[in-house]
Amino acid sequence: MDRSDVTLERMRTFVRVAERGNLTAVARELGTGQSTVTRHLSELEEAVGAPLLSRTTRRVAMTEEGSRYYDQCVQILRLVEQAGEEVRDTRGAPAGTIRVSCTAALGVLHITRLLLAFQARYPDIRIDLSLTDERIDLVKEGVDIAVRLGPLTDSSMKLHPLGESTRLLVAAPGYLAAHGRPEKPGDLAGHNVIRMSNVAGSETLTLVGPDGRTHAVPVTGNLRVDHGLAAREAFRAGRGIGPTHRWLVDDLLESGELEPLLPDHAFTPTPLNMLIVPERAKVARVRLLIDYLAQEASALPGIN
């Protein structure tokens, strides 16, 4: 076997195994068998004449030679894809796959709708959407764009702010009729507060009053959830009071199923951002979606 056997297919397989560290996951991602992935790797190593990966029963890691070779492979594959993009752009409508990750509740209620509208405009573009509240490694998971709430610290990714998400206190009319309406922040301590188990500091509600004073109120309740849609249903069922993003309940506020509380007090808004793999931002179809989401996100309820 000689260097002519260094095919793009084998190179792509190596890159994804290096990034994910798991042969089974890569086989599933590529729609092939694990034996095929193993064969591609062996053939590539034979062609380049050096071991690229160190395999044990539990993990796969790059060798020193593999780490250097990986960097070059990524650049080569990027150039190949960009060349193909440029040719397709000159021949007609944008095409190809964009992999998107999004905060789960926001994705269900709003981002999916935006992506469907985007595909109606560009029907040859395929969308692979993953909904999760976990902070994932975009490169490892093969994601192009991630839409995330909250502060972000991954400096290796390109950050594109979409705005800030307004939060407010809500409760159902039935709950308020049974337990009374809080008139000041301190009253919240006597209420059943629905809390988010995956949000740090949810045992304390911190609001800023119209005079600029900060009120930090310790709260308790008999329900904690780790998903925004579960909190939405609990509010709707009259199980308690709680803070929520406006985009999560805007329709329920309009219908009167929920009511805003303490309207002259405010929570600190939450940043809404896109994280983008820098190299993928140069791909034409990805740029189209970045621009589209940046334009449309500002129209979502409570995004300022």
TrEMBL record:
Residue ranges of domain HTH lysR-type in the record: 6-63
Name used for this protein in its record: Transcriptional regulator
SUPFAM superfamilies assigned to the protein according to its UniProt record, in alphabetical order: Periplasmic binding protein-like II, Winged helix' DNA-binding domain
Keyword annotations of the record: DNA-binding, Transcription, Transcription regulation
Family (UniProt): Belongs to the LysR transcriptional regulatory family.
Pfam families: HTH_1, LysR_substrate
Domain of life of the organism encoding this protein: Bacteria
Record keyword DNA-binding present: yes
GO MF: DNA binding; DNA-binding transcription factor activity
Protein's UniProt keywords contain Transmembrane: no
